[in-house]
């Protein structure tokens, strides 16, 4: 994102279906300076990237208002306030439903009296049904139905149609047709009471009222279900404590968490939540990190260990120095990650959006054709043809299509977050379903990523202690994981570090530098034999023996001679073999990639059951190896630490980065495994595939519902006695949306395979 580019997240209220979201999206994209705009109906949020020199958030809010909806910047709304607002809206919908139901039930009773004359009050009420129905139906039509008229009017102003248009047109046809018939009856008979104890014919007030009642019920159920889909993000936000106890100038203060600054000394007592990220400076404890990593066992913490905001201190008290606060904390990054993921769109959503864009106009055309065919060609009565038209209009709804993808993504990414698996939205979910090859980086992915010095070997006159001193002095300048291991080992041995000049790093090979009068080289075989030109055949037996044990050998040399060898071993993770077996059971081809030589790499690969090994690969060449596999027709996921493997992660079809405990480099992968458990890679694939299956189920149901529902509503099967009343068509329409959301919620029961 360049300096001129900005991003705005805007919460939008008043959208009733995916057509509404498409309308807002189209209007935003017309604004000069908009780079891209995505409106998610399920989350009721717009994510807009724009050129800050050409437009601003105020203009965007104005566009949304002009389209007939209300927008508010997401960062200006507290989550608890948003939850409260959603609860209030749901309560308001419930009250509207009760009011509508109270007026519609008598109308339903009147309708049943037509069929069952023995019902109590039938003989007395029948003549008065017309006027009573008008009185009862009018508040439902124009008070409860006002939202649909407003939405339809806004859409009309934008020269488009939406679900509100369908409901408004469908109910208006039934209501005003009934009003006209009642008026004509009055003109003919000078009375609004049925003659000879009979009801006034051709009145369909109950159709309009019941239709609105069922739609309001559907919206109520949909609202409640959509509220449940965002439970995961609410839980994450609920982890954030509101206050922190800090020590400033030897005084202990309880302050709002927003006032904590970097390097503050924070005090945490047993049972309290840790407010921000930091490093323990005194004390020790066990910390429950399950809410962040999904790991059920408490983690022991002592001085110099990292702690994460939102986790719970179990036993002891300790003090820590705040290192990351506000939006920088791990929890804040995870929340941001999940929010962006849940607001994203899968590629399959493009199909739903395309269908939704022409769906409503197509339905209106079908409805008119239905009326024309029945009335003009098949000789049906006007009321019969109008009821068929109304049924077509109200049974068809793009809502189920609009909810099919986003609700599944909402639930799927939420379930992942609860289990320590962060999935960056719809696209990675879809990609994961087609992966047939996984490339695992060795260091930090298959192994623990914490190598230790196992052997220090002198091959000349220089003693082992001096070999370690020279090597650790050189490595103090380096940032490589092996460097840290050698330097740490020297510290344990109380070895004095010497000053180094002319230091130079050779990525993937080693380092060089001057200590006192000697210019030294420390690295792998390639650096010493190929680049430096020294003969190493005399040491092959020693080097081969170490490498066959899975150890990494580093050679220390001057320009003229070899001084010694230091070997390091990185322990294989306890769960690595099980993880590889899990992937194989899923018919996935597993590869290991490493900068180690073939012999060392093979030793590690054998331990975990991997037969495909890419060894001697420099960091900058890992991406090339991924490309080679892709050219062979493989769909490749790369699993790495997200730091050294960034090019390979980007080149692969799906980048999966392993977090180190709770210290996650979230930006690097499309899927992030927080708790550094390699088995979660297979679990992430399972969850992704389960979510994509739900999306496809939802899409199929939404499409088949309309494909079958519209002909039935048009009374194409009337010759079989299959005739659908408009109010039942409306009920079917509302249930279609609710069933899609409910199907997505079943993902909450997801359990990965072994």
From TrEMBL:
<protein>
    <recommendedName>
        <fullName>P-type Cu(+) transporter</fullName>
        <ecNumber>7.2.2.8</ecNumber>
    </recommendedName>
</protein>
<dbReference type="Pfam" id="PF00702">
    <property type="entry name" value="Hydrolase"/>
</dbReference>
<keyword id="KW-0472">Membrane</keyword>
<dbReference type="GO" id="GO:0005524">
    <property type="term" value="F:ATP binding"/>
</dbReference>
<keyword id="KW-0067">ATP-binding</keyword>
<dbReference type="InterPro" id="IPR044492">
    <property type="entry name" value="P_typ_ATPase_HD_dom"/>
</dbReference>
<feature type="transmembrane region" description="Helical">
    <location>
        <begin position="165"/>
        <end position="183"/>
    </location>
</feature>
<dbReference type="InterPro" id="IPR001757">
    <property type="entry name" value="P_typ_ATPase"/>
</dbReference>
<keyword id="KW-1278">Translocase</keyword>
<feature type="transmembrane region" description="Helical">
    <location>
        <begin position="699"/>
        <end position="722"/>
    </location>
</feature>
<keyword id="KW-0597">Phosphoprotein</keyword>
<feature type="domain" description="HMA">
    <location>
        <begin position="6"/>
        <end position="72"/>
    </location>
</feature>
<keyword id="KW-0812">Transmembrane</keyword>
<dbReference type="GO" id="GO:0055070">
    <property type="term" value="P:copper ion homeostasis"/>
</dbReference>
<keyword id="KW-0187">Copper transport</keyword>
<feature type="transmembrane region" description="Helical">
    <location>
        <begin position="203"/>
        <end position="221"/>
    </location>
</feature>
<dbReference type="InterPro" id="IPR036163">
    <property type="entry name" value="HMA_dom_sf"/>
</dbReference>
<feature type="transmembrane region" description="Helical">
    <location>
        <begin position="384"/>
        <end position="404"/>
    </location>
</feature>
<feature type="transmembrane region" description="Helical">
    <location>
        <begin position="97"/>
        <end position="119"/>
    </location>
</feature>
<keyword id="KW-0813">Transport</keyword>
<keyword id="KW-1133">Transmembrane helix</keyword>
<feature type="transmembrane region" description="Helical">
    <location>
        <begin position="728"/>
        <end position="747"/>
    </location>
</feature>
<feature type="transmembrane region" description="Helical">
    <location>
        <begin position="125"/>
        <end position="144"/>
    </location>
</feature>
<dbReference type="InterPro" id="IPR018303">
    <property type="entry name" value="ATPase_P-typ_P_site"/>
</dbReference>
<dbReference type="InterPro" id="IPR023299">
    <property type="entry name" value="ATPase_P-typ_cyto_dom_N"/>
</dbReference>
<dbReference type="GO" id="GO:0016887">
    <property type="term" value="F:ATP hydrolysis activity"/>
</dbReference>
<dbReference type="GO" id="GO:0005886">
    <property type="term" value="C:plasma membrane"/>
</dbReference>
<keyword id="KW-0460">Magnesium</keyword>
<dbReference type="InterPro" id="IPR023214">
    <property type="entry name" value="HAD_sf"/>
</dbReference>
<keyword id="KW-0479">Metal-binding</keyword>
<keyword id="KW-0547">Nucleotide-binding</keyword>
<feature type="transmembrane region" description="Helical">
    <location>
        <begin position="358"/>
        <end position="378"/>
    </location>
</feature>
<dbReference type="InterPro" id="IPR036412">
    <property type="entry name" value="HAD-like_sf"/>
</dbReference>
<keyword id="KW-0186">Copper</keyword>
<dbReference type="Pfam" id="PF00122">
    <property type="entry name" value="E1-E2_ATPase"/>
</dbReference>
<dbReference type="InterPro" id="IPR006121">
    <property type="entry name" value="HMA_dom"/>
</dbReference>
<dbReference type="InterPro" id="IPR008250">
    <property type="entry name" value="ATPase_P-typ_transduc_dom_A_sf"/>
</dbReference>
<comment type="similarity">
    <text>Belongs to the cation transport ATPase (P-type) (TC 3.A.3) family. Type IB subfamily.</text>
</comment>
<dbReference type="InterPro" id="IPR027256">
    <property type="entry name" value="P-typ_ATPase_IB"/>
</dbReference>
<dbReference type="InterPro" id="IPR017969">
    <property type="entry name" value="Heavy-metal-associated_CS"/>
</dbReference>
<keyword id="KW-1003">Cell membrane</keyword>
<dbReference type="GO" id="GO:0043682">
    <property type="term" value="F:P-type divalent copper transporter activity"/>
</dbReference>
């Amino acid at each position: 994102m360049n300096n001129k580019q900005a991003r705005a997240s805007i919460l939008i209220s008043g959208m009733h279906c995916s057509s509404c979201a498409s309308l807002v999206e189209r209007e935003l994209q017309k604004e000069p300076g908009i780079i891209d705009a995505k409106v998610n109906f399920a989350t009721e949020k717009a994510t807009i990237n724009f050129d800050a020199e050409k437009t601003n958030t105020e203009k965007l809010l104005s566009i949304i208002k002009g389209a007939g909806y209300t927008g508010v910047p997401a960062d200006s709304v507290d989550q608890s306030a948003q939850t409260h607002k959603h609860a209030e809206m749901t309560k308001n919908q419930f009250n509207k439903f009760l009011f509508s139901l109270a007026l519609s039930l008598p109308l339903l009773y009147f309708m049943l009296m037509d069929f069952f004359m023995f019902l109590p009050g039938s003989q007395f009420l029948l003549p008065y049904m017309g006027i009573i129905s008008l009185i009862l139906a009018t508040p439902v039509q124009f008070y409860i139905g006002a939202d649909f008229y407003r939405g339809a009017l806004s859409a009309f102003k934008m020269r488009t149609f939406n679900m509100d248009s369908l409901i408004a047109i469908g109910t208006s046809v039934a209501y005003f047709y009934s009003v006209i018939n009642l008026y004509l009856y009055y003109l003919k008979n000078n009375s609004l009471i049925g003659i000879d104890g009979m009801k006034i014919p051709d009145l369909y007030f109950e159709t309009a009222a019941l239709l609105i009642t069922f739609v309001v019920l559907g919206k109520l159920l949909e609202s409640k279900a959509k509220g449940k889909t965002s439970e995961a993000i609410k839980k994450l936000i609920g982890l954030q404590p509101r206050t922190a106890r800090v020590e400033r100038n030897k005084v202990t203060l309880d302050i709002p968490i927003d006032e904590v600054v970097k390097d503050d000394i924070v005090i945490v007592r047993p049972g309290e939540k840790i407010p921000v990220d930091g490093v323990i400076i005194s004390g020790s404890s066990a910390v429950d990190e399950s809410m962040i990593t999904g790991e059920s066992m408490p983690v022991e913490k002592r001085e110099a260990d990292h702690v994460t905001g939102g986790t719970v201190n179990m036993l002891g008290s300790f003090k820590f120095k705040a290192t990351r606060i506000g939006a920088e904390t791990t929890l804040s990054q995870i929340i941001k990650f999940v929010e962006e993921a849940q607001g994203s769109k899968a590629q399959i959503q493009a199909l739903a959006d395309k269908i939704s864009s022409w769906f409503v106009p197509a339905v209106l055309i079908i409805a008119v054709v239905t009326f024309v065919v029945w009335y003009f060609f098949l000789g049906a009565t006007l009321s019969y043809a109008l009821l068929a038209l109304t049924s077509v209009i109200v049974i068809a709804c793009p809502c189920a299509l609009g909810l099919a993808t986003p609700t599944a993504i909402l639930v799927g990414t939420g379930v992942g977050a609860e289990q320590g698996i962060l999935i960056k939205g719809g696209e990675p979910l879809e990609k994961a379903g087609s992966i047939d090859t996984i490339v695992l980086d060795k260091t930090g992915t298959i192994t623990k990523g914490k190598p230790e010095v196992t052997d220090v070997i002198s091959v000349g006159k220089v003693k082992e202690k001096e070999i370690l001193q020279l090597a650790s002095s050189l490595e103090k300048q380096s940032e490589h994981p092996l460097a840290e291991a050698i330097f740490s080992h020297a510290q344990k041995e109380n070895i004095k570090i010497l000053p180094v000049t002319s230091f130079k790093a050779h990525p993937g090979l080693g380092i060089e530098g001057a200590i006192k009068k000697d210019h030294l080289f420390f690295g792998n075989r390639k650096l010493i034999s190929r680049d430096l030109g020294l003969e190493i055949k005399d040491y092959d037996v020693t080097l081969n023996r170490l490498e066959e044990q899975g150890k990494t050998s580093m050679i220390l040399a001057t320009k003229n001679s070899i001084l010694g060898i230091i070997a390091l071993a990185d322990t294989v993770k306890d769960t690595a073999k099980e993880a590889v077996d899990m992937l194989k059971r899923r018919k996935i081809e597993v590869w290991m990639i490493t900068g180690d030589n073939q012999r060392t790499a093979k030793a590690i690969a054998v331990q975990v059951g991997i037969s495909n090994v890419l060894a001697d690969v420099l960091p900058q060449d890992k991406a090339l190896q991924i490309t080679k596999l892709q050219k062979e027709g493989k769909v490749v996921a790369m699993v790495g630490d997200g730091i050294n493997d960034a090019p390979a992660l980007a080149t692969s079809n799906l980048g999966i980065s392993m977090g180190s405990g709770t210290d996650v480099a979230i930006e690097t992968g499309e899927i992030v495994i927080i708790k550094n458990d390699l088995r979660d890679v297979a679990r992430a694939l399972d969850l992704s595939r389960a979510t994509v299956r739900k999306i496809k189920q939802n899409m199929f149901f939404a499409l088949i519902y309309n494909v079958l529902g519209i002909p039935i509503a048009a009374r194409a099967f009337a010759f079989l006695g299959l005739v659908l009343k408009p109010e039942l068509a409306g009920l079917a329409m509302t249930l279609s949306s609710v069933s899609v959301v409910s199907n997505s919620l079943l993902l909450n029961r997801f359990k990965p395979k072994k």
